[in-house]
Amino acid sequence: MQLDEQSRNAVLPRLRRIEGQVSGIIRMIENDRECTDIVTQVAAASKALDKVGFKLLAANLARCIVDDDQVGDTAALEKLFMTLA
Q: Which residue stretches of the chain are H helix?
C-alpha cells in the first residue's frame, strides 16, 4: 500500500517516537528497573501503535479495501478493524 504524503508525514514521526519508547523499554529491562515502570511504558507504546494503526486505517480505508479487491466485503472490513482491537 502506498500512503499519501499527508498520512506518511503524520505517521512516520509517531513511529520514530515509538521506536524511541521501545529502545527505552529495552534499557529499562537491561537496567533492572521496576516492573510497574516497565509495564507502564509498554502500555504507552502499545497505545501509541494502536493510534498509528487507526490513523492509517482512517486515512486510507478506501484504498486499503480497493487495493485488496475486497470492495463490499464487510467481513474483510470487520477483520481489518478487529486487528487493531
A: 5-30, 35-67, 74-82
